[in-house]
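Consortium newsletter contribution from the modelling node. Members have asked for a concrete example of what our holo predictions look like. Here is one, prepared for the zinc ion complex that several groups have been discussing at recent meetings.
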Amino acid sequence: MSKNYTYDTQRAFDFLNSIGFVRMAGTAEELKAAEMIRDDMLAAGIDARIEDFTVQDVDVNTATLEVLEPYTASYTVTAYKGSGCADALEADFVYIEDAFEANLVDVKGKIVLVNGFLRLPLYKKIIEAGAIGFITMSGDMLDKMEESDLFTRTLRAPLRTLGLIPGANLRVCDAFDMVLRGASRVRLSVNTKLADRTSRNVVAVIPGTASDEEICFTAHYDSVEFSTGVYDNGAGSVILMELARWFAANPARRTLKFIWTGSEEIGLEGSKAYVRDHADELDKCRFMINVDVGGSVLGKELCSCTADETVTTFTDTFMKINGYAMKVDRDIYSSDNMPFADLDVPAASFFRVGAPGAGHIHDRNDIISLLSAKGLEKTILYVMDYADTLANAVVFPFERKVPADMHEKIDNYFYKKEQEEAKKKAEAK
Ligand SMILES: [Zn+2]
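And here is the predicted structure:
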C-alpha cells in the first residue's frame, strides 16, 4: 500500500444500517436519506448541499384485470405508470413470450402478456404489431404468497415516445395461472396520471490545492420499491462518505466533487440532472468514479471502464501492483457513469458483486444481514488508493474523451436511434 489511509468501516456500516429504509425516487424517505448524508458530511466539516431536480411519478395509478373466457377470474395487477389509460377495455388475450417474430403474427387488436421486464425494443415490437394493451410479470414462482411483492412498473419516457397503450404488471404466479388455464379473453382497466416530484442530489466539493482540473465521484442513495437498498446502493454511498472524509483532511491537487445521486433507479435521473445543471463546469472534469453495489460478505470486486484502453490498462495494472484482487474490463455499466461518459468524461465503475445466492438487488432480499463492515472495507481501500493516485497525479494520465466504440454502446443503451426515429415519425404525422 502506498499510504496509510484512515477510514472507519464500522462507522460506514452503522450509517448504512441507519439509511436501510425504502428510499424511492422523489419520496419523503429519499429526502430523509439525502438530509442524513448531508448532515453527516456537514458534521465532518465537509461543505455538502442538496440540489433539487424534478422527476416524474404519478398522482393516480390504478388497474384491474379480469379473465372473461374460457373461465372467469380477476387478478391483482398494478398499472404501468405513464402508460395509456383504458376503461374496461375488452379484447382477446395472447401470451407472446419474448415477442419473437412468430409470436407476433396475430396480435393486432389484442392484449398481450410478455415475459419479464419491458425494455424499449420489446415495447416497440408490441406497438408495431398492433397490440392494444400489454401485461408484464414480476416476482418468482417460488415466492411464498405473503412475501410476493407486486411491483409497480413505469413506462419510461423513451418508451412513451413510441405510442401509448394501457399496461399492467402482475405476479408471475398469476401469469402462470392464466397461461396454464388458457385465458383467451380479458378486460383491462388502467388509470394513470403523471405528476412531477422533487428528487435530490447531495453534492460536496473539496477544492484542489494545485490544479483547475476536477474528478467527480458518484453513488446513488435511492432504492426501489420493497427494497431497503443497502447493497444497491447504500453501500456505495457510505464508501463515498469515507472517501470524502479522507480527502477533506488530505486535500488533493485536483478538486474532487462527490455526488450522492437520487432517482438513479428510475433511469439515472440524478446523474442526468447533475451533468445538465453543471454543464458549464464539466469540461474541467477529467474523470469520474462511480461506486454501485458493495458490502456483501461473499462476493468479488469488479470494475468496468467506460473509457479507452489506457484507462483499462492503467486500472488493471494499478490493482495488480497494489495487490487488490479485481477483474477490470472495458464496457458500459448501467449506472450513473453513463450520463458522464455520454459527454466524453471517461468513467470507472467499481462494484462488489455478491456471490451467487448471496447478493440480491431490487427486491426485499437486499438486506443488511448479507453485508458487513468488513465487506465494505476492500472497496473503500482500493477506491481511496486509486482515487488518491489520480487526484494527485502530476500530469493527468488519461485524455478527456470516450472512444467511438463506447459511444456506440452508450447510444444503444440510451436508445438514441429509436427515439430519433420515433421523433421523426411523430413530426411526419
Ligand atoms: Zn444501483
